[in-house]
Amino acid sequence: MWKTFHSRTWRAVLIASALLLIGLPTELIAETAGSTGSVDRATRSDEPFELSAATVSTGAAVQEKWLDVERQVDDERQVLRICEQNPASCPSPAALEFLAIIDSARPLKGRAQLGEINRAINLAIRLTSDLALYGAEDVWSPPLATLAIGAGDCEDYAIAKFVALREVGISPDDLRIVIMRDTLHGEDHAVAAARLDGHWLTLDNRRMAMVEDVDVRNYRPLFVIDQDTVRLYAEAPPTSGG
């Protein structure tokens, strides 16, 4: 019994040390160390990058950010429905812009539909840091708020794509947001991911072409987010190559 406890304790210490190196919030570090026993140990997962993941506990920093942005997205959906029904009376130019992106993708199918959303959102938003926009770090914004200012960072692109893909009819089971560590530049990065014919494609603000998860290079997957939960990837190795 002591040997098992001792092993788990050291495992928690090692995980916490690794997370400190990548600069994650201390609340999340504590939660991660305490949840290692619940990680699914399957060798292959249905999630992007085929890595198992464990749900983070209530109160974790990333989860709180996602829950907050989800509430804002729900409010924005009401605006979208109003503007969809009566564009002439739409109070939000950003809603009309977002609906135009959705309408352009709706008739398309498969990879063409995903690519249209990726391209249109990339062109609609100017890459700008949260510090420059809000005077604060790591602010997550819903699509209409982002389009209203025409600027945002990687999370804002990913959130806008995630919502747009839901609006065109993609199943939530086939949509994710993935937060990764850029191992070359030492910074975190977020992308939307969509599953097509059993393969996960990443929709990245850094490129117009979509890349399958197995072909992503020089990133370490950290978190995967769906419409219901935020999960922490278990023992995620860095993607290799150059």
Please render the helix and strand layout as text:
Blueprint: H1 2-21, H2 26-34, E1 53-55, H3 61-85, H4 93-105, H5 110-124, E2 126-127, H6 130-134, H7 143-149, E3 151-152, H8 154-167, E4 175-182, E5 187-196, E6 199-203, E7 211-212, E8 219-225, E9 230-233
Parallel strand pairs: 2-3
Antiparallel strand pairs: 1-9, 4-5, 4-8, 5-6, 6-7, 8-9
What does this structure look like?
This protein starts with a helix and ends in a 9-residue tail after the last strand. The chain is globular, with a radius of gyration of 19 Å. The chain has eight helices and nine strands. α3 (61-85) crosses α4. β4 (175-182) and β5 (187-196) form a beta hairpin. It folds into two domains: 1-38, no CATH class; 39-233, Roll (C8orf32 fold), CATH 3.10.620.30. Helices cover 45% and strands 18% of the residues. The strands form two sheets. It has a seven-stranded antiparallel sheet with strand order 1-9-8-4-5-6-7. The longest helix is centred in the N-terminal third of the chain and has 25 residues, at 61-85. The protein has helices at 2-21, 26-34, 61-85, 93-105, 110-124, 130-134, 143-149, 154-167, and strands spanning 53-55, 126-127, 151-152, 175-182, 187-196, 199-203, 211-212, 219-225, 230-233. The model is unreliable at 1-43 (pLDDT under 50). By secondary structure, the protein is of the alpha+beta class.
